[in-house]
Amino acid sequence: MMKVLGTSKFGRQNLAFSTDHPKPTPTKPTDLLIRVLYTDLNPVDHHKLNMKPDGTPTPSGCFIVGYGGVGTVESISPDATENEQQLLHKQVCFLADPRNDGSYAQYIVVDHRLVTVIPDGVPLEAAACIPVAGVTALECLEKVGLPVSNSNNGVVTPIMPSPSGEKHRLLIVGGAGGVGSWATQLARSVYGSNIEICCTTGSQESNDWCIKMGADVTISHDEVETQLGTGPKGSCDSIICLAEPTTALFASLAEVLRPYGKICLVVAGEGIEALDMSFVFFKCGTVYTETVFSSIRCGYYIDQASEMCSILEAIKQGRVTAPLSDAWEEDKSDWKNAVEKGGYIDMVGSGHVKGKLVMKVGE
Q: Do 170 and 196 form a contact (C-beta atoms < 8 A)?
């Protein structure tokens, strides 16, 4: 048996500890049993907990969220290959399959294709920031034409000028959160001054945070059209949208998109059902969507272990730092404290955390 932080009813406030949850065991040749040390905290945790009315029974008993973190590989399947055997007893960074029990638990079973060894010198709490937010940021950057995986050991990568002849501009809508912080740092670490990074924010504190992460300029969420060039020529080559693309917001993004530019949408919602693509079509723009779990659900199309490894190496080399929130303290990160009202779990759910929070999974 093991201790978990889960619920049998939907609603964040129903989260509670249970000490009699069955400890999972590896059954598939690709399975690893990991003793969780830190779990990644993300808004998706709250989305899953609150996706049905409060008090609605969960369909399969104790529902456990948490979709990434770090831990120690404790056991492997008897049919494991030599590659999996080499992971035994190693401290690893992992991304979790959202269809299975999550990482708000002492133990989790994870496919080895979602696991990478943490190099010496990288703190566990830093590595725990990577799986969901870091990988999402990396995949967004790839989609908008700014690949950052396996970069040349810190050597600044040239980038083709914008079709306008001006410096390539990356706009990040909602730049102060975990994904925005990772995207800013990763893009800056690879492209240096060859790229201009603009982030939208909602407060002076968020402005300061984004500049600290490496942004050149910040604007208010509602100033996209008034502060950036609009019309047929636009002003942004690459756009990562970390807010729900409402009709008004997507219209603003279409206005500032440069011809042949690229937009990546990360947050789904009702707005995505009725996007007006007419001006994007006019500019021959490309719209991508991003969810870090698509590869898992569709058969492991992407080597996400290598993506995590790439970010870990960037931390080890000092090219980026894990964007742990200024509010994060190790003593407060223990799950007994994090689950309390106003603790780290609630802070992540508020949508106002700058950077990342992670939770220490204890006894």
A: yes
Helix, strand and coil in the chain, % to nearest 5: 35, 25, 40
Residue-wise pLDDT tens digits, 177-200: 999 999 999 999 999 999 999 999
Intra-chain end-to-end CA distance of the chain, in Å: 12
- Which 3 state secondary structure label does DSSP give 172? strand
How many H-runs (helices) and E-runs (strands) does the chain carry? 14, 14
Cβ-contact 44, 67 below 8 angstroms: yes
pLDDT digit string, tens, across residues 84-110: 888 999 999 999 999 999 999 999 999
List the structure tokens of 151. Answer: 């970069």
Task: Dihedral sign for Cα 288, 289, 290, 295, please.
Answer: negative
Decide: helix, strand or coil at residue 48: helix
Tokens of 314: 């960037």
Q: Are 202 and 229 in contact (CB under 8 A)?
A: no
**Cβ(288)–Cβ(264) below 8 Å:** yes
Find the angle CA(228)-CA(289)-CA(50) to the nearest 5 degrees: 105
Q: What are phi and psi of 192, to 5 degrees?
A: 55, -135
Residue 2 backbone dihedrals phi, psi, to 5 degrees: -145, 165
Contact 195/170 with Cβ under 8 angstroms?
Answer: yes
Length of the chain: 363
**Phi (first) and psi of residue 20, to 5 degrees:** -120, 30
- Which residues have CB under 8 Å from 281's CB, separation 6+? none
CA dihedral angle for residue 286, residue 292, residue 297, residue 301, rounded to 10 degrees: 70
pLDDT tens digits, 138-147: 999 999 999 9
